[in-house]
Amino acid sequence: MAKKVKFQRHTLLQRSTSYRHSRPESGQGLIEYVLILALFSLITLVGLNAMGVNLSETFKKISDSLGLSNSPEEQLIEEKTGLQVQVVDPDSQGVPGVQVFVYQNGTTYNDLSGTTDSNGEIYFELGTGTYSFMAFYQLKFFTSGMYTVPDDTLAVIQVSPNDFPVKVVTEDGTGIPDIAVLAFREDGIYTGTQTVTDSFGEANFSMLEGNFKFRAEYQGGEYWSAVYTLPGTSEGVIQTHRQAFPVRVQDLAGNPMEDISVGAYREDETYSGVSGQTGTDGVIQLGLAEGQFKFRAPYMGEIYWSDVVNVHAIGGATFTIPQTSFKVRVVDSKGKGISNVGVYSYREDGTTYVDRYDRTDKDGYVTFTLIQGTFKFRAAYQENDYWSGVVNVPADGEAVIQTGQGDFAVHVVGASGKGIANITVLAYNPGGKYLGILGTTNSEGIAYLSVSNGSYLFKATVNGTEYWSDKITTTQQKSATIQVASQSESQSYIIHLINKTNKPLEGADVYVRDSNDKYTGISGTTNSDGQITVELAPGTYIFRVDYQEESWISSDYDFPGSDPLTIKVPVK
């Protein structure tokens, strides 16, 4: 409500009267002068108005010159209030997204508008006065009645649409859910109305009278209905012709590629949202609408594309990933293949693993399926890594990994440097991990262990005591030495085995144990004379004999008193 605040005003006439009352006689001439001046000013204002001069501004300047500008009679202070506008359908349900315009006194648009919210409502802040409102819905205008501010608080505009379902379907008529559908006039002008299909594939519209058509945005493409005249038609249909479309992925040799992820894209590489994995036959059935598509498959860090095809105009699509078989061989120092070695595949930088791993066969070969490009390979063997050079797949035919494996001599000697026979020698990495590699010293005290290029430690156990070599690198040294007990503490003994008939027992495995029945690490296999040579420190020992899948334990024997020692084994 506007409030009036009164101020005292001194008009030109009041000033003239004041002069007249104060000087009734001599002031007569002054009054006439003022009246003439006022008449002249009026004539001047009329002329200025005819010339297009802003009269209010001109009057203000004149008032300022006369000292009258600070004397208004009254001033209006306007209070603003608000009014809620709701756009509803015939069921009194709010209609969202409708643009509403405000008119004052029912005729004058006051440059104020807005769009209804999800409840079909919008709030306008308005001054005191009379207003009407116009809603623009589906390219038609709907007008409210007249409302007075601040007496009224809610204005209602009713639009009159009709319910009209539009169904988006596949080739067999099955509805497709979650598809955006937009409504257009027959001439292609968008009505501003859109909705999304429900679980049955229906998009439910409220439409006015007229001719309309509808567009579904699906799989990166646009699909149109026919033109429908409303009212008079009960529902609309948009046919996408979606159906299963087979895509086959194969390698260079034409072999099917399984478990390949394939995505469908429009010609402009807009993703359709449809993808899947190929089966054992290399085929994936993709549910696609009709139109132009191409197919994308990421594989081993690369992206491969098919050609553009007209889906459903042809029976299916096939595209090739340039993959082929490639062999890698792991060999020793003499070029002989090494079996059961794990081999890993990498890009040429040696750090990007391409998820290809296998173990070599009896000839040292492993076969990988790889795409065209440059690669290198790593063999993990005897706790060391061995690399191939960079190879070009498939042009280079195969890759070779050289481990440098060969027989490495380990000497087990006493203080005098004399070799000790029948001592088991084990190979370890520098961190102390046993590598599963062992050998037994011969009559010269030498054990040959098959190790590759790398660093190792070797251990021998003699009379229950462990002795170690220094750390050696096989590419820099040809042999290693393990120094055991001094000559004064141990010496060589010949152990002779015979059977029941006093004949030499050949091929028997003999293990030397101490008086506590603990294995000393000393062993050997009897020769044709039934003999082994062992290095023993003074003490008491027991001998276990394994022969023809049977075992036999001897009595205790004291050394050196038992030298030489002949043991009869109760076997034939």
How much strand content do the residues show? Answer: over 45%
The assigned CATH architecture of the largest domain is Sandwich
Structural class computed from helices and strand pairing: mainly beta
CATH topology of the largest domain: Immunoglobulin-like
Question: Residue-averaged pLDDT, rounded?
Answer: 85
Q: How many domains? A: 7
Count of separate DSSP helical elements: 3
Number of β-strand runs: 50
Alpha-carbon Rg, integer = 53 Å
Tell me about the largest β-sheet: 5 strands, antiparallel
Shape: elongated
CATH homology superfamily of the largest domain: Carboxypeptidase-like, regulatory domain
Low-confidence stretches: 1-31, 33-56, 68-75
Which terms would index this structure?
7 domains, five-stranded antiparallel β-sheet, 50 strands, Immunoglobulin-like, 572 residues
